[in-house]
Structure formats: structure tokens, C-alpha cells
Design goal:
GO terms for molecular function: oxidoreductase activity. With 177 residues, this protein is an alpha+beta fold. The chain contains 4 helices and 12 strands. It is globular.
Length: 177
């Protein structure tokens, strides 16, 4: 088998547009914890499952496995600062600057574009990562463009505002402002 150069693999994968999420949990000592995760996807409709991948050394992975639950905050356009904060080692992620609240017993970030609460369904060993399957127990969304990451930069879907929407969506969005 031919080995693939790790730097080249990273460079090619950087071109893949990924959603930007912050996965959250409650630690064994009852404190909120979270980290930026771009390896997130929906997996199944019946039952409703999502998947996230964590580096095996992740402190958040240990908290999620211990709690058996996790939340996924789908970030929206303009929330780059949250993504960077939750990706920074040693940062006070749930300090005074981060607006959050408990939802379904999990830390949820205020103004995220979407929210998914999950029970840990199973884990799969995957190289230097673990793939976690979460059974969705609660969810919600806000009407805002998603934050995505590609080519080592943040952005959003370029035609998000132009997509067709049912008129009721416009009325709900206007009332929410």
C-alpha cells in the first residue's frame, strides 16, 4: 500500500467546505465544556442520528463519553470569533463574553444558527480519531446563514439570501427581529 503524504492530505482536505460547529457537554464536575468541530454530518433520519469526530486526545471527548450526551451548536455567519475562541487551548470558553444557556441539560450558545441535542449512541475507532454517533433528542434553528470553513478561512453560502422561501418564513423572521 502506498503511503499518502500527511501535508498533501491536509491541503486537499482543506478545500472541502465544512460546517462550523461547537460541540458542548457537561464535564464530570458539572461545568460546561465545548470545542470547535468541523467534522459534523447528519447520518440517519430513522432513527435521527448525527456524527461528529474527535481527536482521541480531546478533553471534550472524555466529557462526552462520561456524560453520554452532547450538544451541537451550528454556527452562523459572523460567529467566526466563537469558532476561534472554542478552538483555542486554555481559553475561558464559557466566560463573560460567551452568551449561553442550558437547554435540555446541555450548554447551548445563544444566537447559533442551529442546535442539536444528542444522546451518545455509539463510538467507532477511526485512526487517530473517534467517530461519535448521536441520537437526536431535541433540535432547533434560527433563520441565519451558516458559517462554513474551507481553504483555512471562514465564510458562508454565497447565495443563501437568494434562495426561495415560503412567505410564512419571512413573517416569522420579521417578528423575531
Amino acid at each position: 500500500m502506498t503511503a499518502v503524504d500527511a501535508d498533501r492530505f491536509r491541503a486537499v482536505m482543506a478545500a472541502v467546505c465544512a460546517p462550523v460547529t461547537i460541540v458542548t457537554a457537561v464535564s464530570a464536575d458539572g461545568h460546561p465544556c465545548g470545542a470547535t468541530v468541523s467534522s459534523f454530518t447528519s447520518l440517519s433520519l430513522d432513527p435521527p442520528l448525527v456524527a461528529v469526530a474527535f481527536d482521541r486526545r480531546s478533553a471534550l471527548l472524555a466529557s462526552v463519553r462520561g456524560a453520554g450526551r452532547f450538544g451541537v451548536n451550528l454556527l452562523g455567519e459572523g460567529q467566526d470569533d466563537l469558532a476561534v475562541l472554542f478552538a483555542t487551548r486554555g481559553a475561558d470558553r464559557f466566560g463573560g463574553e460567551t452568551a449561553w444557556f442550558a437547554d435540555d441539560g446541555l450548554p447551548r450558545l445563544r444566537d447559533a444558527a442551529g442546535w442539536v441535542a444528542c444522546d451518545l449512541d455509539r463510538t467507532v475507532e477511526a485512526g487517530d480519531h473517534q467517530l461519535l454517533f448521536g441520537r437526536v433528542t431535541a433540535l432547533g434553528r434560527a433563520e441565519r446563514p451558516p458559517l462554513v470553513y474551507a481553504h483555512r478561512t471562514f465564510g458562508t453560502h454565497s447565495r443563501y439570501a437568494e434562495r426561495p422561501r415560503p412567505p410564512i418564513t419571512d413573517l416569522i423572521a420579521a417578528c423575531a427581529r
